[in-house]
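Listing 4. Sequential folding, example run.
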Amino acid sequence: GRLNRVKRFELFIEVARQVVQVYPDAVFEIWGEGDSVYRCELESLIEKENLGNHVFLRGATSQVDKELSKASMYVCTSSTESFGMTLIEAMESGLPVVSFDCPHGPRNIIHDNEDGFLIPNDSVDKMAQVIVDLLRNRKKLSEMGQKARENATAFHIDNVMKKWLNLFSK
């Protein structure tokens, strides 16, 4: 992703704070580069909330697949998403996506309670609870990850092109 205020990583950090209260070994990673002032604000918030052992700003990587393969789930706190390529990348890696139901993007990608969760926008407490529930139920986490991998195939080029060709032929 990118470090930009539209991603609302301050809410991500608040979600992390709540989850860590229940799962003190939980680790949250933010990947991407961007606004250096915003990065400093996030670093200060992480320090203020005493989350330095739990929330990490990792910077950019060219090995997105490798990093996603190490995760349990993908969390999106954006205020808006255009299409949400990172959501599909996460799903292709077998990760359920927990996302705010922000305008555009997530609702068109995530099948709620099947391959991820659409959380009412800005409901930090609800998002944290859903993550805790998934961590408690590893079987459901795994099943949702498998379903995410299956559902992500709808966005493969061959499947999208078939839809375009069908649309144009009509």
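-- end of first protein; second protein begins --
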Amino acid sequence: MLPQHMPQLLVVDLEATCDADQRIARAAMEIIEIGAVRVDLDSLEIVDRFQSHVRPAINPRLTAFCTGLTGITQEQVDAAPWFAEACAGYAAWLAASFDGPAWASWGNYDKGQFEQDCGRLALADPHAGLSHLNLKTVFAKALDIRSCGLAAAFRHLGQEMVGRHHCGLDDAVNIARLLALAPAFAAEVRR
């Protein structure tokens, strides 16, 4: 599945502003957390982590639904950097620590949200030049099941997630853990 053999995979998970019943339009959603891990594809161990909360500009007040879902508080985003600064910090971490041809997420949402937020501010996407790997699709193919959410993938394996679901860093860690928990998945990613 990867464009070329590489020893590491970058796994990214984002959280964004949201509300019940989609009262915040998709185009108005903004990243409020960037979570990422680098995984050694030989040992399947996490070798580095990145996390940053982000202050939203369009909808600066988090909804109760968003806080309940993500666990991210108003105080955390109020103290966080704006997207341009958080994105620059993430890009610097990537430049210093990742030299692979691809990044991955559970589904295509994270790719689209990064593109949307970077485009809104005319910023360079830190993933520019990297291929994107949809791990939700790869997992379903490798295990010959229907595409499913992250929590359902863990239930399928009879395993428990660690941390808090819908915390960007915890979800990135859990996605990486699936590689070790499902050898067929790891083999498909390495292909």
